[in-house]
Amino acid sequence: MPAQDAERSAGAGTSAVVRASGSGAVPAQAERLVGLPPVIGPRTRLLVLGSFPSAASLAAGAYYAHPRNQFWPLLSALWGLDLSDLAPARRHAAVLDRGLGLWDIYGACRRAGSLDRAIRDAEPNDLAGLLRRAPRLEAVAHNGATSSRAAQAGAALGLAVHRLPSTSPAHAAWTFERKLAAWRAAFERHGLLP
Fold this sequence. Notes:
Strand order of the largest sheet: 5-4-8-9
Distance between the termini: 54 Å
Strand content: 15-25%
Number of helices: 8
CATH architecture of the largest domain: 3-Layer(aba) Sandwich
Structural class: alpha/beta
Radius of gyration: 18 Å
Shape: globular
CATH superfamily of the largest domain: Uracil-DNA glycosylase-like domain
């Protein structure tokens, strides 16, 4: 029986562990998780949308907190400043100062671990409502494939849409330099480079 079928057959709301053939222990029902609030302001022109915060990000209460995530190193390279040692509040302030916003496609979901493919029962965030808080918003940049699958949401709002390579440590198919070039093009288009 596949792991997903084993999870479903255990029933909702139970905390039992089901053993799927050859795959080890699988939680029968992952805990419902709530994402992070948006980092957005009246000067935000480009909104980076991830899928849902990693376990490390949820624990830290900050975006892209996993130490191997390349998001902050990419921004450091694009902006010529070192964001690596800043506290999350200072990182978020640096983002806002430069016209960038951060949020996720999903506001809540069930997920065991941090992988996007483990997301279940996802509840989308209200992107349309965000426009009131960011009147200068002109584009959405999807950070990775899972977020990109919701690209029509940004397009329906009349926003430009960019599909960018994921900064997640799970996405190792692209080199840092190749990711940097793709991110640089989107940032340049919306005037977010020095």
